[in-house]
Amino acid sequence: MLRGFFTAASGMYASQRKTEMITNNMANAQTPGFKADYSHIRAFPEMLIERFNAGSSRSEQVGTLHTGVYVQEVIPRFIQGDSLQTDRPTDLALMDRTDGTAFFSVEQNNEIKYTRNGKFTVDPEGILTTENGWPVLDANGNRIRVASEQFEVDEAGWITENGVQVARLRIVRSDNPEDLSKEGDGLFSTDINAGLPLAENADFTLSQGFVEKSNVDVTRSMTDMITAYRTFEANQKMLQAYDRSLDKAVNEIGRVNG
């Protein structure tokens, strides 16, 4: 019976983690470039139950016992989001042309991070930054400085101001974006020491005055949320049933009449 407590509790915990993940997805449904997470739920290995008869050395197989489930991993889905026209010159949208995924490169605490959120701005010092103030990097890994927000960006990422090319955006690509670590502020990082390689012109196209919308499917997220809640509720009722059975075993079955 005590095993049943652990099995039901593991189901509740897995459902709670999935609910938290879906809640985060829905909260970022309007965040440019956001990639929705999805989870892999796995079952713990089954246990083989055997019974030994009194006075015999031979065992009899009773069957298998499931010991619960757990969330094995949570990874983002790198499906291309739709484009939203904003007509702001500092807004840029990446469109993938190959199987890989392209990213902007930004600097965070002296480290290179990657993002799909191209909603940029220009700070008081003339540095092109993300909305959260992280500097956007050029192809040489340097910060990009512009005179104003009235610049032009072509499909290859070249920034032109007053007819002069100022810099080229550092656009990188990953053939296995699922291996990237998801961080806050829409940023991703990699364990590769050299970082992600520069993308070729054929890997992407860049549109100025657009941003990539979140790829969160709100309707599906609502359905998944209800399913996760119902699963949590079912495991909760199972836990309550085990508790009532244990209470009866202790207070009624184990009672000795005088």
From TrEMBL:
GO terms for cellular component: bacterial-type flagellum basal body. Residues 208-251 form the Flagellar basal-body/hook protein C-terminal domain. It is found in: Bacterial flagellum basal body. Residues 99-159 form the Flagellar hook protein FlgE/F/G-like D1 domain. GO terms for biological process: bacterial-type flagellum-dependent swarming motility. The keyword Metal-binding does not apply. InterPro entries: Flag_bb_rod_N, Flagellar_FlgE/F/G, Flg_bb/hook_C_dom, FlgE/F/G-like, LlgE_F_G-like_D1. Keywords: Bacterial flagellum, Cell projection, Cilium, Flagellum. Residues 7-35 form the Flagellar basal body rod protein N-terminal domain. The keyword Secreted does not apply. Belongs to the flagella basal body rod proteins family. This is Flagellar hook-basal body protein. It comes from Siminovitchia acidinfaciens. The lineage of its organism: Bacteria, Bacillati, Bacillota, Bacilli, Bacillales.
